[in-house]
Amino acid sequence: MAEVEEQGRKLSEESTDESEEEDTEEEPKLKYERLTNGVTEILQKDAASCMTVHDKFLALGTHFGKVYLLDIQGNVTQKFEISPVKINQISLDESGDHVGVCSEDGKVQVFGLYTREGFHENFDCPIKVMALHPQFIKSNNKQFVTGGNKLLLYEKNWLNRWKTSVLHEGEGNITNVKWRGNLIAWANNVGVKIYDIGSKQRITNVLRDNTSLRPDMYPCSLCWKDNTTLIIGWGSSVKICAVKERDPTEMRDLPSRYVEIVSAFETEFFISGLAPLADQLVTLYYVKENTEDMEEEFRTRPRLDIIQPLPEGCEEISSDALTVRNFQENQCRDYRLEHSEGESLFYIISPKDIVVAKERDQDDHIDWLLEKKKYEEALMAAEISFKNIKRHDVQKIGMAYINHLVERGDYDTAARKCQKVLGKNMDLWENEVYRFKTIGQLKAISQYLPRGDLRLRPAIYEMILHEFLKTDYEGFATLIREWPGELYNNMAIVQAVNEHLKKDPTNSILLTTLAELYTYDQRYDRALEIYLKLRHKDVYQLIHKHNLFSSIKDKIVLLMDFDKEKAVDMLLDNEDKISIDKVVEELKDRPELLHVYLHKLFKRDHHKGQKYHERQISLYAEFDRPNLLPFLRESMHCPLEKALEICQQRHFVEETVFLLSRMGNCRRALQMIMEELADVDKAIEFAKEQDDRELWEDLISYSIDKPPFITGLLNNIGTHVDPILLIHRIKEGMEIPNLRDSLVKILQDYNLQILLREGCKKILVADSLSLLQRMHRTQKRGVRVDEENICESCHTPILPPDTAQAFGVVVFHCRHMFHKECLPSPGTVLGTQYCNICSAKRRGPGSGILEMKK
Q1: Can you tell me whether residue 145 is helix, strand or coil?
Q2: 534 phi, psi to nearest 5 deg
Q3: Of 525, 578, 691, 835, which is most buried with the most CB atoms under 10 A?
Q4: What is the value of pTM for the model shown?
């Protein structure tokens, strides 16, 4: 078997690489191997003349008249001496139990391999072809045909005798015959005919195209693709014929079937054989012409092509030149192509050689990819088809790919592929790590090392960390961040980092990494010191994550210096862990930081830091005056005298005005607005807020000799004070800016007030009338009195059991009902009576009385 494979590989190399350009990248579709073992010995002494293929075995005929039955490896299982001359054709039925043989001396034999039945006949002319009925094993299908100068059909009748009938004659020798189902196709010198054995009708005649070629030198090739598709190859012409059923309405005297040529095309070389391959064709060519691009010794090698038939042509899929033995001496008629329908096996038969062509499987595809150094494609193909490959191993292909990448210097890609190829094999991982160390490429493989449940020895990770620590601080820091701390000995790495820090104590990358290592080791206090020293952004995350508030009580100033906003938010969010008093104590020497803290505390809750409100007055005055006035307005615990003192010392007019007004000294506050700020609008606004007539008098008195102030008062006073009071006090002859506009505005405001009053009056009258009408409608409605109503005084049914007796009921408009005798005597106001319940509730009297008597 090894010999067969070795020869097959050599033949494949010869038949592909030598026939095509050396640098082609197109993968061959077929692979080749010689049929050896017993065949080699037979062909050394004899020559093959024909062969038939069955799924179970092969039948080989020779020039010396012998028939050999072979297994698929070429070993002889049986031998038959048929004739002293050439065997022309061997035919097998579908079961493989019966064999038909014809020879050059006119002998025809049909015999069973496992039965005694048979047929023997000698003709006076060579019998070139024969074919058994595919179902010859069945008793009602004991039929076969032979072809010499005419086509004869042999049938066994019910008397167990053979009956002979001529199907065709008169057009030269029969050169080929193929039987499929009920259809017999044969070729003679004129063309190809098809006969329907069921209807006993000949249904077509396909004429030969190139009549200049001798039929005996360039015989016709016939092949049934299926029960209704015949492929004809003759010379350089190919036709694909489809047998179809004729429409019953069109039959008349015509056969029930007809043939349609669905594809026809010419080929470059002469056809020696045809076979189907799915929807494609495998063609065996005899190459006769000498072309300039062929070397002398290869000019007549046969070719095996795969082509794709098209309606008006074909497309070449692949082409292989075959180096068969003694090909220089062979002619077109010396080659045959047989195929096994059960498997995609194609047998190229020549007198001194038999070559088997097979479809390339996934192993062959991977072989080709590896040969072309297409390792990535080979690895992908192996992964996709790992269940079907037999000769290859996915991991070995992957290792070959990694080796190739390393040899090429593509270390990053090689390292990345390790993750996929090495998988869970820790031994292979360690070998690769040491190999990358040898070539100085530990950095390349570091990011792909296993770091999950499956891990390497800690020494491997430490070796890589030490390598980075020597040459690349940033890479070292990245690995520390990405790798879990349990992968390596943390203390050993900490010691190594400290050694490097002795040489460079201010290196921020090493310090940050050291802090991370301390964090992994749960030495959070050491990590916090480094983070605060570096002012690292992760310091707050570290404090929160590991609850380090007890460690930062004496480091509040450092935290505030680093990031005031984050520090204050953290301190306020964790008052239960660091008290307000502790924070104030720590920040007492840094008033600017203390102000930030107390200001945010006040914003969150006005009462929590109330005992520090007095201190906050000076802090706001010193560091944040814009927020002083809002603080004074919102704080309920601020000492006003202290605040007034500070504001007066610093000449904060607005704040002083607010404090004076809050303390009740509104006249002094208004005076400061007029004198210090000289802002009439603010003065007017202040007077409006206080709504004090005396303040308006003071404002008018202060403004009466200041024309700009008079203008401001005229524009704004109309809705609060009668403008006539101001106008009467203006001195004659005083020039007042925009006086006319101010007076016009006063009149417009007055008109607007009159219109508003009239509008309100109309609305009030309309609403009163509407309500009066509603009340009137309501009082005119009747009130239902039935057995379910009760007296509101005695709480008995309002209607007596005996309605025949006289009774009196009083019903008020409030829907309360009383027996007449249950009510007190009417009041003194003209006999008016009120509902006792509603009067008690002070909801007003009823508007009348309904009295019912019977």
Answers
A1: strand
A2: -85, -10
A3: 835
A4: 0.56
